[in-house]
């Protein structure tokens, strides 16, 4: 029985060593394409934004290509289900509740560039405040969800 454990333990150690070596080889092999992808992303940010903000340089290099692709595909794209103005107003409303001063400022600018009026901006923030207010009431008073849903027209 102890011989089986010893063999099993040795195989486990050998297997771990092989997996670690393979991971190192794959990491080293991927390094040039990783650097190329990062550089291409920085160039795309430069082209899209007219510059590269300092916070971009603080973001982990390994994550920047994916993060930028997500921002471009959803937030910056005008080929999504929501128009840019609506996305900016949603983002502003969320930012007001987090709160995030950076996002509030940026989302307000984006919303204005997308055609939002001061009244639309104010309403988006007010709706987010109402949502948070009522959420606090429902959660704090432990309103039964099934009862709430039935009373509000759900099944």
Gross morphology is: extended
The biggest sheet, with number of strands, parallel, antiparallel or mixed sense and barrel status, is:
none
Q: Give the averaged pLDDT, no decimals.
A: 86
Uncertain segments are: 1-9, 24-30
Quantity of strands, as a count: 0
Gyration radius (Cα, Å) is 25 Å
* Span of the ends, CA to CA: 60 Å
Relative strand content: under 5%
- Helices and strands, in N-to-C order? HHHHHHH
Structure class: mainly alpha
State the share of residues found in helices, binned by percent.
over 70%
Number of helices: 7
Could you walk me through the main structural features you see in this protein, from its secondary elements to its overall organization?
By secondary structure, this protein is mainly alpha-helical. 79% of the residues lie in helices and 0% in strands. The chain is built from seven helices and no strands. Helix 4 runs antiparallel to helix 5 (101-113) and helix 4 packs across helix 6. The radius of gyration is 25 Å and the shape is extended.
What are the SSEs and their pairings?
Elements: H1 2-49, H2 54-58, H3 64-75, H4 84-97, H5 101-113, H6 118-140, H7 145-151
